[in-house]
Sequence to fold (215 residues):
Amino acid sequence: MSAPATAGDSGGAVLDPLPSPLDSVADSREAARWTLASAGAVGALLLGGGPLLAVGRIGDWTHALWAGGGLLVALTGIAWAMWQTSEVLVPPLTTPAVLASPALRGLREQLDAAPGYYFGSLATDVEGLLRHRRIALEISRRLPTADAAERAVLERGLATAHRNIARTDPYLRWLLATAHAWIVREKLRKARRHTFLSAVLVITGAVVFLVATGR
Fold:
């Protein structure tokens, strides 16, 4: 997907299209896959032969409970990290409605700071990009019940709305692609924060398990 078409400079030079915002989605998901693989490796290590051998050194129920609790906490941390990171791999449904979500507050600030880049000269906000679609929908609803004279007027208005939709569509697609990439990036950031917190759980659980089985 290339950037919305804009008029060239006075020299007629043709610039290469900007990379699509969707190009960054693959990189974000690749980072999430590496995180999942790492968490899975740690989980396999916790469930490996070492902990089973250490259980044999437990001599009473008190230490057995401590060891089991520590292992449970560590595995909970692993599951938590994998669950949060796997959310990055779930494709979000990106519609104009999501632009009002809290996750896209940063994007909305960029839109307000530079509306000309995202909307061109055709609109100043998202509502302006969608206005012609609403007009076309309203005209289409009125056409079946219109008389001959009104139908002619409505058909001309519908043709104008379709031309405006064709002009605004590249900007709308570019904006939705940006929103999609932004959502995935925010999911990755959230997953990293949760992974850090889950690492604290894993370390705490592992320490408790080792202390309980180290007698």
About this structure: The two ends are 62 Å apart (CA to CA). Residues 23-213 form one domain.
